[in-house]
Specification:
- By secondary structure, the chain is an alpha+beta fold.
- The chain folds into two domains: 269 residues, ATPase, nucleotide binding domain (Nucleotidyltransferase, domain 5), CATH 3.30.420.40; 153 residues, ATPase, nucleotide binding domain (Nucleotidyltransferase, domain 5), CATH 3.30.420.40.
- The protein is built from 15 helices and 23 strands.
- The chain has a seven-stranded mixed β-sheet. A six-stranded mixed β-sheet has the order 3-2-1-5-14-13, with helices on both faces.
- The longest helix has 26 residues.
- 52% of the residues are buried.
- The structure holds adenosine-5'-diphosphate (ADP).
- The site of adenosine-5'-diphosphate (ADP) has 20 residues, from α9 and α10.
Length: 496
């Protein structure tokens, strides 16, 4: 009977939405994917249409339902791009403004004005820095700039949510307004010590509590999806995308380190049930269950795989992301060309919202292949920046390998170069859509489809990349990268 059962992982990513059904061996039964639209109305602004995300999600779930005729769908887990902010009118069900995406830095100036007085207290409570990346100042921007926000607030029909909450609200017919702790921990409004919204933070950012979703443990019931599958299916887990990937890699074990190569790059190091000093990185909630909370140290890089999309869509020097690999390997080296993709400033460990993208080292002999190669190498250098910061906060724990996932980790050139830069083995799983796999795992475990050890055993390794480059060559390449980031830093005028 169990051979006909399955679990769905729904991944509401930044680049696109993916719906994958897994059987009990962790094998993919069906996988559907569709890109979502982004717009860039002003420098530093990044927006998406919440209705486009919803429609794409519904279409993919209907396709998944068709593919799974004859299967019994036990549960759905939802994982999502984090921090991205949606405000909607709960009466009409319509968003009152586009979703402000996590990469959007329109509130940088406001964040700078708060740092001096509130930096330490906010870090202590949330684990985060005061930065435009997180949701709080995005919510405030909408409240201050969109007239309909005040109207709806006064009528008691204004709701805020990250993408998980927006989709759950819609899939449950407007009955559930909720999120999980891993997503809440990215809002700048949630105290990761008490696991509650914090009055000091709500006052600081002037956010009315009435608009906030209820925060639940990650493996709770988030309501039932009706009218899509042959019978209602319960959502039994919600996790931010990076936390879902972390769950898939660690399966509840601490001291693994993972890096995801999606739109951005996200390195996570598990610290068990303690909030470890994080230096230039942030503390985040990995997940909570009814019994415990798993904390992590995280480094977030704002532009990772999306630099490849930019080469495809704007410069049009590649026609697909996978074409970047043969172009990079057609060269024997980078010819001194470096690409700092600071399109939204630089995230960890630089935290420089005024940095801007730069391509350095151009000569008349530079070709589009050099630019493509420099873009791929930039991901590996940025991951090394993060890795060094993890080592700074955790000098005693020897890290033996890096676990990877996300769209761009399918690129063999990038993975080999990453291993060379880290001087560590890089382990790529068979299923690189690890976010969907992770949240399906949590949902499946919570309803008895897997036990934690059978879920762990279902993860298969496809390839391990070992370092081949000499230390000297690696050091000289990396030193030049550090020089390149210095040149791009504070390109826009900082605000004092
Ligand atoms: P997200 O979850 O953030 O939506 P994904 O994990 O789906 O992202 O990864 C998509 C990103 O990976 C895109 O930005 C794309 O440009 C990049 N990407 C996909 N395949 C490759 C590849 N073979 N080489 C380099 N980058 C790639």
């Amino acid at each position: 009977m169990s051979s006909k059962q399955c679990v769905i992982g729904l991944d509401l990513g930044t680049t696109g939405v993916r719906s994958i059904a897994f059987d009990q061996k962790g094998v993919i039964i069906t996988s559907n994917y569709q890109e979502i639209r982004q717009s860039y109305p002003n420098p530093g602004w990044v927006e998406q249409d919440p209705l486009n995300i919803l429609n794409v999600t519904l279409e993919l779930l209907h396709k998944t339902a068709q593919d799974l005729m004859g299967y019994s769908i036990l549960t759905v887990g939802i994982t999502n791009q984090r921090e991205t902010t949606v405000l909607w009118n709960s009466k009409t069900g319509l968003p009152i403004y586009p979703a402000i995406v996590w990469q959007d830095i329109r509130t940088t100036k406001y964040c700078a004005s708060l740092k001096k007085e509130h930096f330490l207290r906010v870090k202590e409570k949330t684990g985060l820095f005061i930065d435009a990346y997180f949701s709080a100042t995005k919510i405030k921007w909408i409240l201050d700039n969109v007239p309909d926000a005040k109207n709806c607030l006064n009528k008691g029909i204004l709701k805020f949510g990250t993408i998980d909450s927006w989709i759950i609200w819609n899939l449950t017919g407007g009955t559930i307004h909720a999120t999980d702790t891993s997503n809440a921990s990215r809002t700048l409004l949630f105290n990761i010590n008490t696991l509650k919204y914090d009055d000091y933070l709500l006052n600081l950012f002037a956010i009315p509590p009435s608009i906030l979703p209820q925060v639940k443990p990650s493996n709770s019931s988030f309501g039932s999806i009706k009218n899509i599958f042959s019978s209602p299916v319960t959502i039994n887990a919600v996790l931010g995308d990076q936390q879902a990937s972390f769950f898939a890699h660690s399966c509840g074990q601490t001291s693994i380190i993972k890096n995801t190569y999606g739109t951005g790059l996200f390195m996570i190091y598990g610290t068990g049930n303690i909030i470890h000093p994080s230096g230039k990185l942030i503390n985040t909630i990995g997940w909570t269950t009814n019994k415990n909370t798993e904390y992590a140290v995280e480094g977030s890089v704002f532009t990772g795989g999306s630099v490849i999309q930019w080469l495809r869509d704007e410069l049009q020097i590649i026609s697909s992301a996978s074409q970047s690999e043969p172009m990079a390997t057609s060269l024997s080296g980078n010819n001194g060309v470096y690409f700092v993709p600071a399109f939204s400033g630089l995230g960890a460990p630089h935290w420089d919202p005024y940095a801007r993208g730069a391509i350095l080292g151009l000569t008349r002999g530079t070709t589009s292949a050099h630019i493509v190669r420099a873009a791929l190498e930039s991901m590996a250098y940025q991951a090394l920046d993060l890795f060094k910061s993890v080592q700074d906060v955790n000098p005693r724990n020897k890290i033996e390998k890096l676990c990877v996932d996300g769209g761009a980790c399918s690129n063999d050139f990038l993975m080999q170069f990453q291993s060379d830069m880290l001087q560590l083995p890089v382990e790529r799983p068979e299923i690189i859509e690890t976010t969907a796999f992770g949240v399906a795992g949590m949902a499946g475990i919570s309803c008895g489809f897997w036990d934690p050890s059978s879920f762990r055993d279902s993860k298969k390794i496809s390839r391990v990349f070992y370092p081949k480059m000499s230390q000297d060559e690696r050091n000289s390449l990396y030193n030049k990268w550090k020089e390149a980031t210095k040149r791009s830093s504070k390109w826009e005028t900082p605000i004092n």
